[in-house]
Write a structure and sequence with these properties.
It contains 9 helices and no strands. By secondary structure, the protein is mostly helical. α1 (about 10-30) crosses α8, α2 (about 35-50) crosses α5 and α4 (about 70-100) runs antiparallel to α5.
Length: about 220
């Protein structure tokens, strides 16, 4: 009976999966206009980062509070990233096909340009991974959010690769093997990603005096 008690690890993980389903539904509904995807993703990560830290609360209220409070900034950032992503995707598609139909020096030229676009896409992906969790965690300017997202992602490269692998694996399994996993979808990605990155986010957003206070508290306890 202890296995099924509310405080058991099994029950807590089942509760988290229920949260994944519910928050994934909220995220999907709030993302329907397309332009609100940034605010919806920010709300989703706000809740999942709270849960990863062990903080409890009404997940629906937390989601919509973050959605409202960060709507303007998250939407602006999302529209910027959407435009850049479409530009990179179109450039990559065109350059790839130009490379296929070219030969000699022209093929080398298109290959170099394609490599530049791929490198830019890597930078873009790093920013995309961290920017909305950062918006959910700290207040800053749009430019600072984009810049810090890249620097954090580049510095904590293992975490970045892990979060990217989580999204790729969930997408691949959903499309290739188990379509019903779409009920968990982005909710599952956000939960697993938050477990991987919440310490990184906290370390990068914690004020120096707060960090010092935390260290002092740990020293006193020890």
């Amino acid at each position: 009976m202890k296995f099924f008690s509310y405080d058991s690890k099994f029950s807590q993980w089942m509760l988290r999966f229920c949260y994944c389903c519910w928050l994934n539904l909220l995220w999907a509904i709030c993302s329907i206009p397309i332009v609100t995807i940034g605010a919806a993703t920010t709300g989703l990560y706000y809740v999942m980062l709270k849960l990863a830290r062990g903080e409890e609360g009404n997940v629906t209220k937390m989601f919509f509070r973050s959605f409202r409070e960060n709507f303007k900034q998250a939407t602006v950032l999302w529209l910027i990233l959407l435009a850049v992503g479409l530009f990179l995707g179109a450039d990559g598609y065109i350059l790839y096909h130009l490379r296929l139909i070219s030969a000699g020096p022209a093929a080398v030229f298109w290959t170099i340009l394609l490599a530049v676009v791929i490198a830019a896409a890597v930078f873009y992906t790093i920013i995309l991974i961290y920017v909305f969790p950062l918006v959910a965690s700290v207040e800053n300017t749009n430019l600072a959010m984009l810049k810090n997202s890249f620097f954090i992602g580049a510095h904590y490269l293992f975490c970045t690769i892990l979060v990217f692998a989580i999204h790729f694996a969930v997408f691949f399994v959903t499309v290739r093997f188990f379509t019903p996993m779409m009920l968990l979808g982005e909710g599952l990605c956000a939960m697993l990603s938050s477990l991987a990155m919440y310490r990184v986010i906290d370390a990068c957003t914690q004020a120096p005096e707060d960090a010092q206070s935390a260290d002092d508290a740990e020293d006193v306890q020890s």
